[in-house]
Write a structure and sequence with these properties.
By secondary structure, the protein is mainly α. Helices cover 57% and strands 2% of the residues. Pfam families: FA_desaturase.
């Protein structure tokens, strides 16, 4: 990373600091990896049992969905089950966090989640593109998901004006936005895509949508007999609730006002330590209790997830204090705050960048510059 591409937030760090940060975080990874075992396996099996029990219970309640109490209870229970499946189970299993167990039923190569996005396409757009290029404008397609302006490094266009409304619609139907994410619509519109590859991806998306719609909007409503209409509405509502929750958690981990974005020059000869620091600067946590962490898929520890995306999510809470202490020693920001504050900060940014504003080509400081810390 050259001086020109370094944020003022990290201008005080020396090459020796970056090397020390890399050694410490690599050692932390190795320590946790060596300690994985029975309690971790028991955790993911327990969460899967809870999730499946909730889904069965929710769908059973919806057999009487014509009764308002049963509709509300069934919809809420099914929504919680879908959130758990997508966030704490599906997202993390497909990251390979549980591949070390060598269980073919809980493995990144076999898991297909309850979502209209095909697992294979999600793993490419998320695990490969996003986690490699975190917050690199023009490289990380998760920066605004290709339709929102969320940083000063992005140019403004009149199409950005309605983005608060666009973001609201994206939240409600987030799984469909995720489904088309790997298509890289900007390349398709510019004619820089491979047409056959795009058609193949669209066919896969179509198959997954048909499968999900058949389950939620045909089979289970039919099984409820005369409650068909109310069960269909309940399933739709549960999906929207899941989508809004997932959108909120993910956006709060990536776009609150204090995170930084970078230009592609940042990647020039980027060292391991510089990669780690980019994850620290470009991520934000959500403070809260165990229930929030569970329901967020532990993406409330987004900083730790970006540092160690393939470590089991149940370990992020114990890693977090050590990561925060490292940040304090090296004068680095550790972005965190309660859910309400992170939501407000994210929406404030989305509204602000809907309008024209100065565009910059390199990050500005998001924290005071401090003297170098001892390794």
């Amino acid at each position: 990373m050259t001086t020109a591409t370094a944020s003022a937030t990290v201008a005080h760090l020396t090459p020796a600091d970056y090397e020390a940060i890399a050694r410490e975080l690599d050692a932390l990874r190795e320590e946790i990896t060596a300690d994985l075992g029975e309690r971790d396996a028991a955790y993911i099996h327990r969460v899967i049992r809870w999730q499946r029990g909730l889904e069965i219970g929710g769908r059973a309640l919806l057999m009487a969905s014509s009764l308002p109490p049963a509709w509300l209870a069934g919809t809420a229970t099914l929504a919680v089950a879908k959130i758990l499946e997508n966030m704490e189970i599906g997202h993390n299993v497909m990251h390979g966090q549980w591949d070390w167990m060598r269980d073919p039923k809980i493995h990144s190569t076999t898991w297909e989640w309850d979502n209209v996005s095909p697992a294979g396409q999600w793993k490419h757009s998320h695990n490969v593109v996003h986690h490699t290029n975190t917050n690199i404008v023009g490289r990380d397609n998760d920066v605004g998901y290709g339709i929102l302006r969320v940083s000063a490094e992005q140019g403004w266009h009149p199409a950005n004006l309605p983005q608060p409304l666009v973001n609201l619609l994206l939240a409600m139907f987030f799984e469909y936005g995720v489904a088309v994410h790997d298509l890289e619509i900007d390349k398709v519109l510019a004619g820089r895509n491979d047409p056959e590859e795009t058609r193949a991806k669209l066919r896969a998306i179509g198959r997954k949508i048909r499968r999900q719609w058949a389950k939620d909007y045909l089979v289970f409503p039919l099984l409820s007999g005369p409650q068909f209409g109310s069960t269909l509405a309940a399933n739709f509502t549960a999906n929207v609730v899941r989508n809004v929750w997932a959108h909120m958690i993910i956006f709060c981990g990536h776009f609150p006002g204090d995170v930084e974005f970078f230009t592609a020059e940042r990647l020039d000869a980027e060292t391991r330590g510089e990669w780690y620091v980019r994850q620290l600067l470009g991520s934000a946590n959500i403070s809260g209790g165990p229930l929030l962490h569970l329901m967020s898929g532990n993406l409330s520890h987004q900083i730790e997830h970006h540092l160690f995306p393939d470590l089991p999510s149940n370990r992020y809470a114990e890693i977090a204090p050590r990561v925060r202490a490292l940040c304090e020693r090296y004068g680095l920001p550790y972005h965190t705050g309660p859910l309400a504050r992170q939501v407000g900060s994210t929406w404030k940014k989305i509204v602000r960048y809907a309008f024209p504003g100065p565009r910059r080509s390199a990050p500005e400081p998001s924290a005071p510059v401090r003297e170098p810390a001892a390794a």
